[in-house]
Structure prediction request, 400 residues.
Amino acid sequence: MLNAPTRAEQFVDDGEHYLAQTYKRPPFLLVSGDGPYLYDSEGHPYLDWVAGIAVNALGYNDAGLTQTMQTAAAGLIHTSNLYYTAPAIELASLLIEKSFADRVFFSNSGAEANEGAVKWARKVQYEKGLTDKTEIVHFSGAFHGRTMGAVALTPKEKYQKPFMPLMPHSVLAEFNNLESARAAIGPKTAGVIVEPIQGEGGINIATDEFLRGLRALCDQHGAVLIFDEVQCGMGRTGKLWAHEHSGVTPDIMTLAKPLAGGLPIGAILLTEAVASAMHPGEHGTTFGGGPMITSVAKHVLQRISQPEFLEHVNEVGNYLQERLSEINSPLIKEVRGRGLMVALELTGDVSAMVEAGYQHGLLLVNAGTNVIRFVPPLIIDKPHVDQLVEKLTTILSASK
Prediction:
């Protein structure tokens, strides 16, 4: 007689039946977390090197975050953007204080923030009467989202081909190649969008020379420079903003993932010259910048922007790269990254390693076919790195 499925097994089976199968999920049910660990319904711990895809910066069961959420939930949840609320204004003020920006527009996600950034870049040109200045330059290896505008700027056939035709006037150039950028950026360029560190593309760092060159080209041609820091921003690289490493300032910066510690929020940070191109009724959002979520995001931003917090990210990130570089395996091609945004590039497909990680109590995620991407909670510590390296060494040895 067959054993009846457990409640967790039933949930997993129901998930296979009821959820759209746009993700390949492992057959366990996550139920709780603490610090950098997640636990499934059987009590098995998983050291989390994914952090909800670079979202859960403060880890799990964080006392300060939980208290802030509980307090915020006792107040207003939603009012819409037809009215002012204090939390949204306080968060916008703090973001402006800690960045280049003069204005903030809140959205619900990174893709939505990038869609809005593209609209703003085109609207700047429209306001000037330059109605044929509509091109958006983007780069190889980029990932800016899955919505129709954002996916047009994400040059991967798997993401684009089934959904053709995409947003027109999207111009592709080669990442970290100034000559290619110079050929692409011209009189018809409305905006240029780039990740200071590419996430999904494989943890590829834009060189200082490349970002400086993009700034100069945008200035030369009157184009809007957009930095997509949805994944690499908010302390992930050891500075609050990834572009700080280069000293180059954009006209627009998009944020999302870790901003509210796991709650959905996106943000578009803008200079006054760019922000003033959009007028009432020309762009909007129903849920963006709600009082509950912005209360939580303010708490997260205050925590992450502390110098000692960022120093911790640098210290542990450097240690992570050092320890990964010590692994002796012919399968390893390169270790690279900045802060706690690190890639382990292998000679072949990493999907089997991700699967093996589950058996060893690790949550891992790829970035492309042959890169393991480490974007853990920013509170992760050196002993956790040691655990990771020990288990990865075992997995790689078994993969020979």
User: Anything to note?
Assistant: The domain at 75-304 is CATH 3.40.640.10 (Aspartate Aminotransferase; domain 2). Residues 333 and 346 are 5 Å apart (CA to CA). Residues 307-326 form the longest helix (20 residues). The chain is about 40% helix and 20% strand.
